[in-house]
């Protein structure tokens, strides 16, 4: 057998459909998967939109089993949900935020059924991936669970997403803006991606498009979200946050920024931060470690300040963190990602701590200078 080069692999959901008010017009897209559904959501999402969606499904002759998400995408909670399913369904629907959707993916994988993902937030790029992030019961990171296939359908309704607080959209910006930077770092060393292959040019171009779209439309989309209205700008960044960034990270690769944000709980202090908020500060840290051009750093920093993403240690709730405490996070990050030492810049724990401190001071100086003007 001839030896082959490491393969370039690109993966994606089978279908991605985005349209205002699509949720209550979804029957033509769902009926191909059967008529028996199990739906996973939390109490808040059911109250806002999920129960009405279940009524819509029943009105269109679907049999629906309703599961209540327990609040944590832990192996224990996932098994509990699976045990509640008595009549084998044709497909599973996850509706809500990231942990709910990851639980639905786990159910779909375990039961070997179709998986439909309906994000009610644009706060991460996880909905389109074949990945579930598992946590322990106390909320600490457990493991990445890679599935054998991507979701069969991702259904995105901007009318629903526009009703969420804008902090969620901003978190999605933080997550998505890291995609190109991290994928490029992986591509520079021909590293493995989440697709278990080498990154493709296609993934890199999509990652770049995600960044470009957010920088072009993000500020006005953020204002539209504040007003709870759907505009072309909001629709564009929803696509960037969920679809473009998702395709870019999964087939392009993640690197230091995501390894670092995963390690934040090691400090056991600070504010309750969303995934994308942690990624935002970690991205600034990676940019400084890469010795990115000042204009590039300022571009990201200015936008983060516009939409309220954290740019100082105080924003993280770490204003009194010692170097020893930050070293806990850095050591955890350095140990968590096996390829971190292959990146083309110093990724030692000492370098990570120094960069986290440098981001804090850089942002303070930047803001002071802006006020002086």
From TrEMBL:
- What Gene3D superfamilies would the database entry show? 3.40.50.1970, Dehydroquinate synthase-like - alpha domain
What Gene Ontology molecular-function terms does this entry list?
Answer: glycerol dehydrogenase (NAD+) activity; metal ion binding
Q: Which residues form the Alcohol dehydrogenase iron-type/glycerol dehydrogenase GldA domain?
A: 13-158
According to UniProt, the reaction catalysed is:
glycerol + NAD(+) = dihydroxyacetone + NADH + H(+)
Checking SUPFAM superfamilies in the record gives: Dehydroquinate synthase-like
Q: What's in the keyword line of the UniProt record? A: Metal-binding, NAD, Oxidoreductase, Zinc
* Major enzyme class: oxidoreductase
Q: Identify the residues that bind glycerol.
A: 125, 175, 258, 275
Metabolic or biological pathway = Polyol metabolism; glycerol fermentation; glycerone phosphate from glycerol (oxidative route): step 1/2
List its EC numbers. 1.1.1.6
| Cofactor: record remark | Binds 1 zinc ion per subunit.
Pfam family name, one: Fe-ADH
Which named protein is this? Glycerol dehydrogenase
């Amino acid at each position: 057998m001839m030896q082959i080069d490491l393969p370039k692999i690109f993966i994606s959901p089978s279908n991605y459909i985005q349209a205002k008010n699509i949720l209550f017009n979804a029957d033509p897209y769902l009926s191909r998967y059967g008529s028996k559904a199990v739906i996973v959501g939390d109490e808040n999402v059911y109250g806002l939109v999920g129960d009405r969606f279940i009524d819509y499904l029943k009105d269109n002759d679907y049999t629906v089993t309703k599961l209540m998400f327990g609040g944590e995408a832990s192996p224990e909670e996932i098994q509990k949900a699976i045990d509640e399913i008595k009549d084998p369904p044709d497909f599973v629907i996850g509706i809500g935020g990231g942990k709910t959707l990851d639980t639905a993916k786990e159910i779909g994988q375990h039961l070997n059924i179709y998986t439909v993902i309906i994000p009610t937030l644009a706060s991460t790029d996880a909905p389109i991936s074949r990945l579930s992030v598992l946590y322990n019961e106390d909320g600490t990171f457990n493991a990445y669970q890679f599935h054998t296939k991507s979701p069969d359908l991702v259904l995105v309704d901007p009318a629903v997403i526009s009703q969420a607080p804008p902090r969620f959209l901003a978190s999605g910006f933080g997550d998505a803006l890291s995609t190109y930077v991290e994928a490029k770092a992986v591509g520079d060393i021909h590293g493995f991606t989440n697709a278990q292959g080498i990154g493709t040019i296609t993934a890199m171009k999509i990652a770049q498009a995600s960044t470009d779209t957010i920088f072009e439309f993000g500020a006005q989309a953020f204002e539209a979200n504040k007003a709870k209205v759907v505009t072309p700008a909001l629709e564009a960044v929803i696509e960037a946050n969920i679809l473009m960034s998702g395709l870019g990270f999964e087939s392009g690769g993640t690197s230091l920024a995501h390894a670092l944000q995963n390690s934040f709980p090691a400090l056991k202090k600070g504010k309750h931060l969303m995934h994308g908020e942690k990624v935002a500060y970690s991205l600034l840290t990676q940019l400084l470690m890469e010795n990115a051009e000042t204009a590039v750093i300022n571009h990201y920093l200015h936008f983060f300040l516009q939409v309220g993403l954290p740019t100082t240690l105080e924003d993280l709730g770490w204003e009194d963190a010692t170097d020893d405490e930050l070293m806990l996070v850095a050591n955890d990050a350095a140990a968590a990602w096996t390829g971190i030492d292959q990146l083309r810049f110093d990724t030692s724990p000492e370098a990570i701590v120094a960069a986290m401190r440098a981001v804090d001071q850089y942002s303070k100086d930047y803001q002071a200078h802006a006020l002086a003007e």
